[in-house]
Amino acid sequence: MAVGGPPQEPAYLPVYAAAALGTFEAEGVRPSLSRTKHPTAAINAFREGAAAVAVTTSDQAVRGAWARGRPVRILVAHTETPAVALLVAAQLRERVTRVEDLRGRRVGIRGPGTTGHFVLAALLAARRVVPSDAEVVSLSGAALVARLGSGDLAAAVLDEPWLGRAVAGGAHLLLDLRRPDDTRRQLGGAFYEVVSVVSTEDKTLAGLEAALAAYARALVRVQSWLVTTPAAEVAARLPADLVGDRERFVARLEAVHQGFAPLGEATEEGLKATFRVLQAVSPWPVGLTLAPKDLREPPFVTSARARLGPTPPPP
User: Fold this and answer.
1) Which of 59, 123, 166, 238 has the most other CB atoms within 10 Å of its CB?
2) What phi and psi, each to the nearest 5 degrees, are found at residue 253?
3) Whole-structure pTM over 0.90, yes or no?
4) ∠ Cα 16 195 189 (to 5°)
């Protein structure tokens, strides 16, 4: 397995937690985890045959696999919300009360192609605010917090730890997309930021169905536990090298724990919403024809998840 992020990024935590807690072994599989530098590296390793499963972003699953002739299906959706929020400078909280109010103003993002960039573009497009109507600038997290605090930026899309620092500095939380209800309301459905994918090729799946089903069951158990368990209790069960700075780990997990997909399922409605967000910045290649059904999980994963019941047992 090629994993496109560290355990300190909550979206990737379920994989590392399942390994640390022995949940994979309890379900009958022992995957070899190979951490890569970023989601692109994970999908590259997968495409080159160095990994049977890639834990990567949904954007890379499309642009890095499907668009390059390697169709994939989602084994498990790890998250169903983006780990970002839209914040407004304290000086403008009375004047910027809707996304539409960003017309003619400067808005910050962490970088082109980031989740914050995708989400901002989708929010603006849904309100018919064209890119030229708002000045979007790309800055480091520290610079975004500083310039939001000074009022040089009207708004910014931030993730942790910068999000918490901006709020502590007085920035106003306009939209918190880390909450499933807000994500569905603002984006039209769930947004599957990070997913585990596998090739659709029969020769790849042959002989692996039992192992992949066990992998999916283990992650569903962990993700359901992460959604329903206080962050402090999660930290107490995980090994110290996985938690790192306990206070920071607990604060970050508390902020995003609602965003884990408790049953790991990528629904058709959610995939449609995810597709809209991913295409808000730039369209997919003209030759790529992709529908939600093409990315939905294999039937053996559906059966494996169903066997866990509506309340999966904790890891």
Assistant:
1) 166
2) -70, -40
3) yes
4) 130
Which pLDDT tens digits describe the chain residue by residue (315 residues)? 999 999 889 999 999 999 999 999 999 999 999 999 999 999 999 999 999 999 999 999 999 999 999 999 999 999 999 999 999 999 999 999 999 999 999 999 999 989 999 999 999 999 998 878 899 999 999 999 999 999 999 999 999 889 999 999 999 999 999 999 999 999 999 999 999 999 987 666 767 899 999 999 999 999 999 999 999 999 999 999 999 999 999 999 999 999 999 999 999 999 999 999 999 988 888 889 899 999 999 999 999 999 998 899 999
Q: What are the extents of the domains in the chain?
A: 2-81+190-308, 85-177
- Exposed/middle/buried for 240, CB within 10 Å: 0-12, 13-18, 19+? exposed
2-81+190-308 has which fold? D-Maltodextrin-Binding Protein; domain 2 (3.40.190)
**CATH classification number, 85-177, choose in 3.40.640.10, 3.40.190.10, 1.10.10.10, 3.40.30.10:** 3.40.190.10
Domains 2-81+190-308 and 85-177 share a fold: yes
Which residue's structure tokens are 């379900």? 27
Q: Which two tokens stand for residue 214?
A: 């066990």
